[in-house]
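Hi support team,

I submitted a single chain yesterday and got back a structure, but I'm not sure I'm reading the token output correctly. Could someone confirm the output below corresponds to the sequence I sent? I've pasted both exactly as they appear in my results page.

Thanks,
R.
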Amino acid sequence: MGAQRTPRETWIEEGLRTLAAKGVDAVRIEALAKALGVTKGGFYGYFTDRNALLEAMLDTWEQESVGEVLERVRNLDDEPREKIRLAGQLTLSADRLLPVDLAIRDWARRDEAAAERLRRVDNARMTLLREMISTFCDDPDEIEARSLLAFSLAIGSHFLATDHPGHTHSEVRAMAADIVLNRPRSH
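Hi R., thanks for writing in. Yes, this is the structure output for that exact sequence:
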């Protein structure tokens, strides 16, 4: 009986975990094999080289953070502001996708292929925001500005290390989202 082969998805998943924890330079075939407790020979049954793995990692991230999220959000029978909240929750609050998203942003600063993929993902996210915000806002300039502010809030707040006297970071983010999305404040 032959040895069980490590599934392709396991290599990709370990690559994404490593990317999120240590950055793209740490995504090395030997290191992944060691982390998985397997030899690197099985890797070549699925991928021609490291670049093929990196491309597959980007494919997986894009599918999970845009394809699956947009499908869930668009199939949700709910108010547009709630759809925006759910999209943000699924992609940028999630324990798994947020660290990968932030690591890809760092990687994209130095790699044009990663930058192009990030641009495509961010454009899909902005398109969703524009669609949802246009349901309660008529001015095209205001739609664009609110979309940018909402997306900047979702991404940028993870880079801030500031105190909010009298409030938690989450409370202030929620208040900012209410302003951007023109929601009545809940006290």
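A quick pointer for reading it: Residues 50-75 form the longest helix (26 residues). Let us know if anything else looks off.

Best,
Support desk
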